[in-house]
Amino acid sequence: MGQIGIGEAIGEGFGLIAKRPLAVLVWGLARVITAGAAFAVMAPIYLAIFGQISAQAASGIATPPNLAGLETIQGANFLFSIAGLFVGSVLYCAVYRSVMFPDRSAWAFLRLGAAELFYFLFFVGGVIAMVIGMMVLMIPLFVIIGISTAAHAPALGVLLMMFGLLGILFLFIWGLCRLSMVGPMMVEDNQFHLADAWALTRGHVWSLFMIALLLIVILIVMEVVLGVIALAVGFGWLAQAAGGAANIRGFFLRPPAEILSTFAPALMVGAVFSIPVSGCLMAILVAPWARAYCDLRPPTDVAATFA
Prior knowledge:
Layout: H1 6-19, H2 21-59, H3 67-100, H4 114-150, H5 154-178, H6 182-189, H7 195-200, H8 205-242, H9 248-251, H10 256-296, H11 302-305
């Protein structure tokens, strides 16, 4: 078993963008199509609800909330969340595959097989376990706050709460680092790995944490740069659509359907721009973990073991 090259892992995604630009665009396109499908389904529902609210405000007649519409939104959000997890599982496996098996480049490394299914189940199980774990860990913290408040020591309760939250965050990050090799191991042999991934990362948590920390810094920098650009371009376009910056407030008082139709060209341009951005983010944030696994995985033959 080798040691993780942190620099090589961080640079893997950028190298992947240079070597496999078409695959990166396909990954981004899949993300945008998924988001676009959700928007196409949800937008009419939200427009109907906002239209009802606007009509009530104009008439001054209070009517009961549209519970059917709210239930539809909740159901649709749940279904799209599941669909998003599945698409994400397929894309994550594709990025892992592009690093571990560069010769399997057909269909932009996308597959629908056991690895994708197992990774999807891992995602779903992880979300459920995280929610339950957070609930279990938060109960003692709320008890501590209650006791501190009853003892007229709220400052102590707040301090203990802060340390408790930091402890929970530490456990969360530590657990993610220990399980970070699950996906690459599944892609390698189409088997479900959990205990194996946990054992493989023993003694390498610090290196994996440094990879995660550097990726978070890169993500923040990219979000700031892209956010500033999007804000500047969006404000300029909005001011032009409203007939001047002074008219922006009045622009949002128009009927929701009219606002959406005005935004439609900008949304289309944004969707096209999001394709390469989403694909590059996939490569930058996911590929390092496959590279780390390549550094950690044991040799596949006896000769390599004694080399």
